[in-house]
Design a protein that fits this description.
There is one protein chain. The protein has one domain. A hairpin with a 5-residue loop joins strand 1 and strand 2. Helix 3 packs across helix 5 and helix 4 runs antiparallel to helix 5. By secondary structure, it is mainly α. Helix content is about 55%, strand content about 5%. The chain contains 6 helices and 2 strands, in the order ααααααββ. The longest helix has 18 residues. It has a two-stranded antiparallel ribbon.
């Protein structure tokens, strides 16, 4: 069976988002020059989560993100790569579940953020004005 990418022209692949092109992760996928690191990571997470937790929803994933953030805040492990990775994995999966290209969404939002004015509170939290 041919992989999906072999059936799609190179120019079409360049225009596709990671959510339009969720592929089984293989050595060939990882070496595809049109797959960004984020898209490959998102595909790996989606492949695992779809197999292990097929009935998850955006709502249940957000609830789990909040649980993981609570653990991170309550613990002394805020610099623990595994705890931070839990949050990142869930966020990437949420983007997958919602069909949103994370890289494009973050870039678009950063453009908005760059054009805003920001205040920083005494706690160090930033808020746009």
């Amino acid at each position: 069976m041919k992989r999906l990418t072999s059936l799609i022209s190179a120019s079409a692949r360049r225009q596709m988002t990671s959510t339009e092109l969720v592929l089984p992760v293989s050595a060939e996928t990882k070496s595809d020059p049109y797959m960004s690191d984020i898209a490959i990571l998102q595909a790996e997470i989606a492949e695992w989560a779809d197999r292990v937790i097929p009935d998850r929803t955006a709502y249940s994933t957000i609830a789990k993100i909040l649980e993981e953030l609570g653990e991170l805040i309550a613990s002394k492990r805020m610099r623990d790569p595994e705890e931070l990775a839990d949050v990142a994995i869930l966020l990437l999966d949420l983007f997958h579940l919602q069909g949103i290209d994370m890289k494009a969404a973050v870039r678009a939002k950063m453009q908005i953020n760059r054009n805003r004015r920001w205040n920083v509170s005494d706690s160090g939290a930033a808020k746009h004005v």
